[in-house]
Model the fold of this input.
Amino acid sequence: MIEPHKSVLLNEVLSLFEGAGEGAIVDCTLGYGGHAEALLDRYARITYIGVDRDQAAIDYATRRLARFGSRFSAIKASFAEAISAIKTPIAGVLADLGVSSPQLDNADRGFGFEAQTLDMRMDKNAPFSAADIVNGYDERELSRLFFEYGEEPRAKRIAALIVKNRPFHSAKALADLIAANLPRGRIHAATLIFQAIRIEVNDELRQLSAALDALENAKPSGAIVAVIAFHSLEDRIVKTYFKRWARSCICPPNALRCECGGARELGEILTKKPITASEDEARSNPRSRSAKLRAFAFKRAIF
Ligand SMILES: C[S@@+](CC[C@H](N)C(=O)[O-])C[C@H]1O[C@@H](n2cnc3c(N)ncnc32)[C@H](O)[C@@H]1O
Done:
């Protein structure tokens, strides 16, 4: 079978879940089911709940994983909402953030530089698309968005260029305009702008923080949480949560002495530094080059 999406850091993810106990692995970003299939094959003791907000991904993965019978089930939802609703014991949580290759490559989804639409919604039923942002936000809002979510130093200039030339009806027209007006570096001149628009359309950073908040509330006993981030904003969020979860003293930083009694950590960080792709993987799958995998193990509750 030709895989529509090559799963990143697959062996590293498999090794991290070796310590996961019995129960369900919640895959927040099921996508085309590559990580799911490998984990279900490797660990006979686990069941698997796959979440995705893209119906095309859910349909494909459901066919791919049918051989696992009742060990696999799928939920079409945003992971922030799904994770707080799951009531079965959780052995692990995986989030392989961002977009899948079919989302990027399919010209009607509007994610890629050649796309003929300006859409970028992971969930095709979501009410708000890239066109609403590009054609509707004022220049200041666009500039803020490009600066905050794209970390694009030329945010102001690009916002002014867009406002002067809109409306846009395709990602290609937008990418071509930016490329024609800005010098090309190592990456396409519109890369960071597209990243910013995609994050805004899909509310990606809030989704991530809300899912981590839900896990912090649930404190799933013994669960392993593994997150693969593809840009620094996401990675920073994951790192900050994991660091906070691992603190044994939760007194405010300005407290003169510890009053919380210590031993308040929720568990331990399993990756002191993020795991990144090997040279071989980076060569064979360019998407893996920006991937950073961090993991955390919740401590087991004592009853
Ligand atoms: C990188 S792909 C996952 C690939 C998958 N791990 C595999 O091996 O095939 C990311 C997937 O997550 C989904 N996704 C991203 N953010 C989401 C969110 N907040 N809620 C639900 N699904 C999300 C996307 O629709 C996409 O299908």
